[in-house]
Structures are given as structure tokens and as C-alpha cells.
Amino acid sequence: MFFASVARSMARAPRLLQPVSSGRLPGRYVSHQEGLPPLPVPPLPQTLERYVLALQPIVSPEELAHTRDLVRDFLKPGGVGERLQKGLERRARKHENWLSDWWLKTAYLEYRLPVVVHSSPGVVLPKQDFQDRQGQLRFAAKLIEGALDFKTMIDNETLPVEYLGGKPLCMNQYYQILSSCRIPGPKRDSVVNYARGKKPSTHITVVHNFQFFELDVYSSDGSPLTTDQIFLQLEKIWNTSLQTNKEPIGILTTNHRNSWAKAYNNLIKDKTNKESVRSIEKSIFTICLDAPMPRVSDDIYRSRVAAQMLHGGGSRWNSGNRWFDKTLQFIVAEDGSCGLVYEHAPSEGPPIVAMLDHIVEYTKKPEMVRSPMVPLPMPKKLRFNITPEIKNDIEKAKQNLNIMVQDLDISAIVFHQFGKNFPKSQKISPDAFIQMALQLAYYRMYNEACATYESASLRMFRLGRTDTIRSASVDSLKFVQAMDDSGKQEQEKVELLRRATQAHRAYTDMAIRGDAIDRHLLGLKLQAIEDLVSMPELFMDTSFAVAMHFNLSTSQVPAKTDCVMCFGPVVPDGYGVCYNPMDDHINFAISAFNSCAETNAARMAHYLEKALLDMRLLLQSNPRSKL
Ligand code: COA
User: Where in the cell is it found (predicted)?
Assistant: First the structure.
């Protein structure tokens, strides 16, 4: 999605993502990381030429002509462009990844909107078939055991290296997602990581009825607790948190980051509160045992769960049953709704979902019969002293959150008619096919193309995170304009569709090789700020504002599990679209804001389904000659 960050290597002194103490680093991990190439700085003329091309479908001819003049100026020998480019190249020589710290700061840590809806993605898992507390706790216990099993692979460095296009990927994000937490700051947040060091974390946080508990998940001999043991511990937690009239302290984490930073400092003035907050921050992850949400019909069930994962449903429901700064929070509700929400700064979706795939598989394993267990101590309840000032902060946070909850319009759907097998059978990239369907849907709704963001992985490079695939292209516009043009021959439409998908795939290849334009342009802009030169006109231009206003913010997050990731739009009048293409169906989650009269998630979902079907029909009605 739009925001992502780049974690600093654990091997060098990190500044923004801070391991709390510098423990021994996994040797195999370090040697793998060191073998990865550094992120290149693309050639300046190449980026600017591609920038102008990317503007063509989304700005007016007059705006484009003006931008061309600015580009010419920027590129003058000895001019500002050359100077900034040299600065970037110098930076690239000095840093492990020239972009990583900048990106982490600008995309996340200095981003002041609440993490809820605006930054943290959720994942909707298939509904589990339990209907009561026993089932809920047993599933939660199994899930915790599965997560600890994954943690063992990270700790022992047995996690297989991932590949994209035959190239090994940076695995750093996996080392950042456990035992970590974002901490609010007055102007900039930070992320702490307690995974390594002399005393790595051995507990998780469990939250039920807005009450937080510290649950140690390792025995004294260092082995992880078994499902049965965890289950009994969860039962104890449940039985001591039956009251539902507690202050939803976790709701503080949903607030605007500046307000939360102030409230945080106020909260931790009290010693007990500070200890409780530290325990949550240090924990390996959080398990949220949610109360059942209002029942809804089957056709909107997924959308309701997506909302529950993104924001918890509001202060009356489960939003206080979270600590949204925690990197990883699994959610298991009594009614079988399950999933997670994660704080985006340390990682992109794919590592999170890869972990989830492992955990879901683990929960399906039959349980082993075990010998009688030694009794375990009662999990520690994390206490909070609520002063009138803290109470007031909670009330304000509740109000703001409830407005956000009302404003989020989300539609999670399953497109049943076909999955990635169909475009593959047509020798078309499934991702490109879906992106072109999104272009067609948007064009049919608004009669124009818009700046479109698709995340592309930069993990082929050390500490790489993402760049942008600009899905609205000259070729996509030609295709969507032709599609409903009765004056065009079917064969021509097919050719335009194929060309548009090929162009998209070519952009994808360019992006994952580190040759896309967005991060380079961001780097040049930040270099100008760092060098204290006046902001080049290129970045003050209307075209630049249009190009950065992503009405469509999209991402493919593929998973083996039949789940879908979801996230909010990145502009007030935009859509957030995430999808998981399975072989024979596609899971989509589409979000918008109710406060924008022009957008509507269900309507976009409808147009998207129609676009996918129309594109299939077009290809099937006009088969390629076998020759
Ligand atoms: N004909 C037949 N098959 C094709 C094809 C063609 N022309 N083009 C691609 N395929 C196949 C691929 O081989 C692949 O096969 P597989 O299912 O056996 O693996 C499959 O179709 C999918 O390929 P494609 O749809 O082109 O997408 P991709 O898997 O290469 O993914 C991106 C594209 C952009 C999503 C990926 O490169 C990426 O960057 N992912 C990271 C996203 C991310 O970080 N998101 C962050 C969210 S927080």
C-alpha cells in the first residue's frame, strides 16, 4: 500500500528502528543480507522521462506542457537536478540503503494521522467454526502455538529465504515484526524491538474486555508452552476479566499521533501505568479476545469483519480491545471472526501474511496427547491508574475514533467467477489483468483515469521495502477508452488490453529492479530539503500534486490462506484496494470514506466485478489464432 518503511539493518547501529539492546545477531541472516545488492539510484534523465510519460493519462495537455518545461530546466547541465542527483549518489555510497531511513520517517514515523484506518492494515481470515468461548480460547491457544513455532524459525534462522523472479529477497522485515512496538513522539514516533538482547521477550499480551494481561509463553526450560497449557492460561485470563465496565485504555492508541504522544507522556508518569505500557511494548505480540459483534447477513459478513480488523468497531465494541501501536495483534472473537491488524512501520504485508499462512496451517494440525502438566502461575494483570486527565484523554480519543469508524466504508468481496488461472491461460499476468480491471472500473465510474499506486517489492535489495507501480499508463487509458467504444473492433480492444497488461508487467519488472520513479523523486525532494536549497519548481507543480494524489491505492498481497488484507484510502476522495488472487477466485477488500460523496466501496466493487467479467468475455469471444 501507499505507506511502507525500510527497516535499518540490525547489523549496524539503527537509528529509527531501535533494538533495545544490541544482542548477538544471527550469523546466517547477516551473511545472507550482506550478499544482497544495495538499492541503486536510477539515472536522472531516465526518471524524468518516465515521469512525464506517467503524467500523460492523468493531467491536462497544458499542465503536461508546463511540466515538460520544468523538467527541461531541472535537467540543465550544472543545474539543480544534477546537484541533487550527486547528493543522492553520495548518500547511496555512505548508507546501506539510501532510502530506508528517509522512507521510514516520511511514510510512517512523521506521519501524524492515526495509525488506525490511515496506516495499519488488517487481515480477514476465514470464519472459524466455533461458536463459544471454549472454541475461541482453544483456537487462540493453537494460534499462539503456531506463532511461536514461526518465531522458532526466526530465532534459529531456519526461515527459508524467499525469492522473486529467481532473485533472493531481503529477509529483514521478518526480524522486525515480533517483540516490537511503535512509540508515539511529539513530532516523530519511533519503533522499539525487544527480540534480541540479553533478555529477549518471553511473554505475549492478551487483552479481553479492555483488560490487558502479561502471559509468559515459555516454560522455565525455555520451551514454548503447549496448546493445552496456553488454553488453561487463557481461561484464567478470561475468568478474571469478566467485567465489561473497564476504561478502554487501548483506545488512546487510536488517536492522532500528536495527541497520543501527549497523552502517552501523561499516562506513563504513573509508575504502575509505565510498567504496564512497557510490558505491552515488550511483548512478542498481542492476542485480542474480542466480544462478538452485531450479527449481519452473510453477504456483508466479510466487510463487517474487515472493519473489525481495521478499527475494532468503535468504542462500544472492540476498539478498546487493542494496543494499536503493537506491531502484531491477532484477533480472535467469540463468534468465530478472526484475523489480525498490524502496525505498518516495520513491515509490508507479504511477510505478515507468510507468517499467517504458517500459523493457519499449524492450527489445522491434530493436537498431540500430552502428559499431565505442571501448574502454571496466574498470568499478570496489567494495571492502570486512571487519573481525571487520562480519563479525559480517553474520552477525546473515543470521540475521534467513533468519527473515523463512521467514516470508513469497506467492502470485502469474493470474486467467484475466476481466479489467476484464467489470465494465465490467456498468457497474461494475473496481477496486470486485475490492475487493468481496476482501471476500467474507475474509468467507467468517473470517465477519467487517476493516479494509481500499486506496491512493488524492493526486497531484491538490502533493506528494500517498496516502490510504486503506476498502473494508470498511456496504454491503460487507450484500453479503457476503447472498451466501451462501439466504433472499435473487438480485435482491436483485445490488442489494446494485451498491450496494456504487457506495459503493466514491464513497469512491474522495472519497479522491482529498482528503476521506478516514485522513490527517486522522493529522494530528490528530500535531498533538496536536506541541502537547504529552495524547493525546485518541479515539486511545486500542479502535475506533481496530481501525480501524488492517489485516488486508487492498491496492493496485491498473495497468501496461501483464503484471506484478504485490507487498508484505508490514502486520500479523502480515494479508494484503498487490496487483493489476494487465488487459483479460482479473487478476494478483494475495497475501502473509501463515507464523508466523500463521490466514492462508494460497494459501487467500486460492483464495477470491478463487471470489468473483470467483461474483460474475460472479450478474450474468450476473440481467441488468439493457434498459429
Ligand atoms: N502468462 C502466464 N502466466 C503468467 C504470466 C503470463 N504472461 N505472467 C505472470 N504469470 C504467472 C507468474 O509466473 C506467477 O505464477 P505463480 O502463480 O505460479 O507464481 C503468477 O502468474 C503471478 O504473476 P503476476 O500476476 O504477474 O504477479 P507477481 O506474482 O509477479 O506479483 C507484484 C506482482 C507487483 C505483486 C509483485 O512483484 C510484488 O512486488 N509484490 C509485493 C507487493 C507488496 O509488497 N505489497 C505490500 C503491501 S503492504
Answer: Endoplasmic reticulum; Mitochondrion inner membrane; Peroxisome
